[in-house]
Amino acid sequence: MIVLYKKIACAVISSFLLLAFTVNQTQATNDIYKERMALFKKTEALTQIPWYYFAAMDNYERNTKEETDTEPVISISIPTEIWFGIGNSSMIKDKTAIEFFHGKGKDGDGDGKADPDNPEDVLYTIGTIISSYGQTEDDIKIALWNHYQRDLTVQTIMNTAKVFQTFNDIHLTDRSFPVSTQYNYSYQNTWGDSRGFGGLRIHEGTDIFAGYGTPVKSTTYGVVEMMGWNLYGGWRIGIRDIYNIYHYYAHMSGYEDDINVGQVVKPGDVIGSVGSTGYGPPGTSGKFPPHLHYGMYKDNGYSEWSFDPYPYLKKWERMEKDK
Q1: Residue 152 sits in the same domain as residue 263
Q2: Residues 6+ away with beta carbon under 8 Å from 117
Q3: Which pTM was predicted?
Q4: What does the pLDDT look like over 155-170, one tens digit per residue?
Q5: Which of 7, 104, 141, 225 is the least crowded, having the fewest Cβ atoms under 10 Å away?
C-alpha cells in the first residue's frame, strides 16, 4: 500500500511539474512577443516607418537562421562594416566614433553607444537606413532591395508586413488542414515518389484524394502570390506565409470568386475546390483521379527548396479534428 501511494505521489508530482513547465514556457513565449511588439512600436514612433515592416524584416531573418537554444528578441542583423564604418577596425561602439568612420550604427536607447547586440539600437539603425529612402511603400521596397539585394526577399517581407498589418499581431500560430475534414478524403506520404509526365522527376508534395468540389482551404496566414494555369499543376494557387514558406496547391477545379493575387488569407479560408486539372494545355482535366496536390517550399534567403509536408498535414489534421 505504501509503495502504491509513493507511485501515485510521484505521478502527481510529475504531472504538476510538466504543467508548470508548459505554463512557464507559454508565458515566456508570450512575453517575448510582447517585448518585440513594444520595440517595433517604439521604433515606429522614432522613425515614422510603420511597425509592421520592422516586424516582417525581423521575422524573415529569424526564419533564415538556424534555431538556437535561446531565441534572440530581435534577429535583424546589419553587416559589421556598415554598422561601424570602414576603417573602424576596433569596432568602437561609441556613437561619435561610428559617425567619424561614416558607420550607420545608431544609439536607440540613449546610452551613448551604438551596440549591434542591443535590440533597440538595431531597430533604430535599420529604421534610420530605411527612412533615408522615404516613407512611402515604394520607398520602403527600394530600401529593402538595397539592403538585401534579392527580389524574393523583398516580396516575402512586404507580404509578411501586409499580414501583420491586417491582423495587428505578430503571434499568429493557428493552422488548418488543406481540405475540408467534413468531406471524405484520403492521403499517404507520396513526397519523393517518381513522376513521369514532362520527364522523370520526383513528386514534390502530398496528394490528398477527395471528390470533385471538395473545399480547399488555406493552411496558414499569408498572401496569395500566384494564381493561374500550370502545365503540371493545372489550376493552381501559391501562398507565401510569414515563415518564408511557399504553399503550393495544384489540380484544383477552380477558385473562390473573391480570391485574388495579393490577398491576405488566414487558416481555414476557402480558396478553391478539388479537381483533376493539369498535364496539358489550359482546361485539360481528367487525366488522373481528383485530388489536391499540396507542396511546401522553404526559402533560406539564398535558395528555395521543396520539403516533405506529410508530417505537418498529420499535425494540422489532428488540430482540426480536436476543434
Answers
A1: no
A2: none
A3: 0.86
A4: 999 999 999 999 999 9
A5: 7
